[in-house]
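Thread: "does anyone have the structure for this chain?"

Original post by V.I.:
We have the sequence but no experimental structure in hand. Need at least a predicted one for the grant figures.
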Amino acid sequence: MEESIHIRDEFIRLGQAMKLAGLVGSGVEAKIVITDGEVKVNGEVETRRGKKLYPGDAFEFDGNLIQVKKNDHQVS
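Reply from O.Q.:
Generated one for you, tokens below.
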């Protein structure tokens, strides 16, 4: 299933993104599945939970594909 998360900052770290997407319940759980090689970023296995994800990146875990998008709700 393909979903997306929206970020306000320039980037989000992989572990935080997994929690935001509801794929894991805690940072510890994120660390375990990432270091075990169960997460892909842009199609490649990623083992660093601190990996920076930018809008346009995608990560995959347990059959879920999550796109990172920029939250465009800014006041001009």
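V.I.: this helps a lot. The mean pLDDT is 93.
O.Q.: and The CA atoms of residues 8 and 72 lie 8 Å apart.
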